[in-house]
Amino acid sequence: MGNVVAGKFPGTVRLQVDPPPAEGYIAGQKIRGAVYCTSTKSLDAGVPLNVDAFLVGKERSLVKYEEIEYYYESFINAEGRRVREQRARTVTRYRYAERNVVAMAIHLADISTGVKQGVQYKFPFQVTLPQDLPSSMHCQEHSHVYRNYGHYDYRDWAQIGYDGNGYCSVSYDIHAELKGKGLFSTQRTNQGIKVLAAPLPEQALPHYVPPVSRDINFCCCFDKGKITFGAKIDDTRIGQGENASIDFAVRNQSEVRIERVEASIVEHCTWYAGGRQNDVIREISKAMFRPNPRWDAVTKSTRATLEGDHDEYNRTLRMIHDAVEVGDNSSYVNAPLQCLQTYQGALVTTRHRIKIKVHMDGFFVNAPEVNIPMRIGTRHDILGKDKPGKIDVSFTEVPNELEKPTPEDEEDGDIVIAPGVFVGESQAVLGGKDIKQVKEDEKMSDDGDIVIPPLQEVLDPTLDNLIYELKFAVSPASIVRHYLSLLEWREKVFSVLAPPQYAHILKSCEIEFDQPEIATAIAPVIRNGNFTCDYVIAAVGVVNDWLRISMVQKLIPFTRDLAQNKQKIKNKLTEWENVCTEKDIQNEINRQQGPPQGPPQGQFNQGPPPQVQFNEGPPPGQFNQGPPQGQFNQGPPQGQYNQGPPQGQFNQGPPQGQYNQGPPQGQYNQGPPQGQFN
Asked: Where do the DSSP E strands lie in 27-150?
């Protein structure tokens, strides 16, 4: 329930929003509510009143920083002379900034017929949240994560508000506004709502961590050999409360035993204002891998032998690939329900990564590690097991439902219910490049009119306009999906893309996890489905290293020249990338070429040729006419074909084993080739 705001208007204005689900409103869902106005005096007709509601989402940042300030101080020295010296001191300063994430105007009514005293006026509305909204969040400096019995507990992170430290937030509010002229000023009230981002795609985005070789040194200078390790993440996109499964493999070629291997999720939140930034980095989950014999140290002689073997590295790559494929050593890390979701905005950025760290036995020995980007979002099955994936956002008006009195309305006495107002997500203004900033520690005032930016004008279908939109989009993938649905954009932009332009679109998408989705969405449209290996090579060249394998695996099903030009792709990949993708490439070539058409004639190891179909019987008349001239040098025993086979011989098939052993010796001069019927 919103706060009651009283002013010159003779009465009250309040806002009521239907309670959300336990987890909050999910982007793409509908929100219902109503604005209530009650006047303690009758207002004559002709007094204009405007009733409006607004949905506003903002990202905010307050950056705390210190700087050296120089000043001059005068004093009397020991000689009795007044001197002036420059001094320095550390001062704390702040910068504040905010930017719209979404803004929607909901015009409810224009009243000019007068208002009755004591009557409650209800203005119901329904608004559909855009599907691309980020989740509500809050993070501040010096908020620590404490470990408690193997779990991670966010003790003071939930505190929201300014306590002298920097903070950032993404928050949403619904505002109600009653605006009049002459007699009274504008009256407002608002209610905050919690929003969850739309569920993650159900399709997994796996990642093969390229094997890395690290030198093991004692006291930073004594060489003890090296280790090579790699991993596979089954899905780099997981929801809050879900587990990320990790398969790990290592080859120890050093004289130091591996003591333990840890996997953890690290969260890094950064916010910006006035050219400054604050950071919070914390470890939110941790797991261990079980030891195995490959962790043991090797002797000096074994190490020397391995270092002198030029094929050892290739064998190690194969061993690691095979080990992570079969899950030889698996563990998992959990994304806590209270953790932030991955987000990249203009003022606030939250990133997550999986860190795998190898601890060697002994003191003063370095601990190699590798980091893998990951995305934490809303779990795909949050709506229930029967409703995974996208939310049904079909816009259906139900005026009778909105305009029915509620039990609370009936308790309030006389009530007038206005027609319901429905606003779809097409009326939302998402994102934008306008950032408001305030110096020092003055928080930006919320007073004044709520300004909703105008709806974005329709852009001409050009590549430059698409690139411009991607730079400021809340969700680049949704921008691409929208324009792909427009025929003019498909024909004038996407279908005529050359490989460099295709790569330019992917590079302009700053959210890395959206790049595979954008690439696969555009691929079928290019050149009316004539997608070639050149586009795969262009895409692999601009994405981050950790996405290259997934990009190849997702794009090769769209290619039309894979069998002819697969080597072009392989030449652009590393040895590890080739090991991980060779099976996918070959399987896709086999799929495109279709199933085999049957063995070449005479391949008896794969089954007898058509003319020896004993189970079906010989062609009519074959035995009455005898074999073709010269087929057998001596011919068959006299009368064998004139008399025909014993009754039922060909219907039942030959005696068991007759053809597996071959014909009786000497029956034919040449006899069939050995194993003809095997």
From this structure: 30-39, 49-76, 82-111, 120-128, 137-140, 145-148
